Description:
This protein is α/β, with parallel strands linked by helices. 39% of the residues lie in helices and 17% in strands. It folds into two domains: 2-141 and 276-302, Rossmann fold; 143-273 and 305-311, Rossmann fold (3-Layer(aba) Sandwich), CATH 3.40.50.2300. It has a six-stranded parallel β-sheet, with helices on both faces. Strands 7-6-8-9-10-12 form a six-stranded mixed β-sheet, sandwiched between helices. Helix 3 links the parallel strand 1 and strand 2. Helix 7 (204-217) packs across helix 8 (229-241).
Amino acid sequence: xxxxxxxxxGRGDVHPQTRERxxxxxxxxxxxxxxxxxxxxxxxxxxxxxxxxxxxxxxGILNGVEDAFDAGGVxxxxxxxxxxxxxxxxxxxxxxxxxxxxxxxIGETTNFRxxxxxxxxxxxxxxxxxxxxPDDISHVPDDVAGxxxxxxxxLSLGRRRIAHITGPRNYLSASERxxxxxxxxxxxxxxxxxxxxxxxWWTQQWGRTAAQMLLTAHPEVDAIVCGNDQxxxxxxxxxxASGRAVPEDVSIVGFDNWLIFAEDANPPLTTxxxxxxxxxxxxxxxxxxxxxxxxxxxxxxxPELVLRDSATHVVST
Length: 317
């Protein structure tokens, strides 16, 4: 044990062949010398592994992570896997070689992702997309609560013929937001108007197509919860082109608070903000081992509703 310690930490008189054998064994085991259950501040470094570093969601989380680590004097090494498992393994090896103190894994979506914790002997925290291992620490948005928020707001305006347009079925965010919509409607004793419109992608074009189908099948609709802001902007285009007014005739709520869509929409879009920057800060605190954030399991973070003009008109009774 003493020989292995001296070899790994570069100290003591260790024969070169022995040092090489120890290093090879350490790499195979994913072992690093400074094993710890939390990352202490001052002079430490943390790896961030992301599938999509320039993505809409990962950037917000990364900014929150960096803000938290700046305050603690921790440097960040960013690794982009581009959804390639070979690149991911390469970066895991690189981070171990650099004797990194901890890793945050940022998913591309909220779908569960394969755990990499077993490959690392240092703390790992997952953000946006939870680990499929319940013994890991994951910090993710509460999309069910977001669906409830959006729908309860429309109900508070007096809307009762509420429909839902969303993205692909295989996205956890789509199914969880739908769960929130239906939960709020059920609590109010209101039936959802029409079937859920699932799309092949989260685009404005799908929003336009789905809104056209919805208006044809259910011209009585007076509100739509949209699975994201792009879909909402597309739906607004079709509703206004049909001669209806937003929000007077049909109220619209989006998701994500993507400003280039939400603020530039006509009218500006009421939307659910996932507060990704704050989620990133919590993930960083989990890596520091701070409080409840560091408990194992899936931590859900509440979103907030950002009110703009697309859902403000109260229906007179």
